[in-house]
Amino acid sequence: MHRLVVLYPEPADPDHFRDYYVTNHLELVKNWPGPLAWRYSFDVGAIEGAATEVAAPYFAVFEADFADAATMAAAQESPHGRRLAADVANYATGGAVVIHYPVQDGTG
User: Fold this and answer.
1) What predicted TM-score, i.e. pTM, was given to this entire model?
2) Which residues form the EthD domain (predicted)?
């Protein structure tokens, strides 16, 4: 499995971000061919050291799972994937950090 993670720093207008993201952007995600599953949250927390809560560097997070890296790349390069990427500018005034990686099984 391959995971795509989008980390969103604090936007200029958090209310607009939430409204646009849920009403418009996630509607596009629902029809995106490729992901096996996806999820998001606006309740991003951060812990430093021994469970000391600190201000999170991100406002929201999105993640999507794909069968493999090639499937993720094809989804991103598709017309729908390009439309999703272009839509980010409509709500993420703080920008977005996109990372991806192969998921390793952590069970023993």
Assistant:
1) 0.90
2) 11-93
Neighbour tally for 2: CB within 10 Å: 18
- Domains parsed from the chain with CATH numbers: 2-102 (3.30.70.100)
First-to-last CA distance in the chain?
18
CB-CB contact of 40 with 99 (8 Å): no
**73-102 per-position pLDDT tens digit:** 999 999 999 999 999 999 999 999 999 999
DSSP 33-89: SS-SEEEEES---EEETTTEEE--S-SEEEEEEESSHHHHHHHHHSHHHHHHHHHGG
Nearest-CA neighbor of 59 among 6, 98, 11, 97? 11
Q: 90 in helix, strand or coil?
A: helix
Q: What residues have CB less than 8 Å from 77, skipping those under 6 apart?
A: none
Q: What is the DSSP letter of 14?
A: H
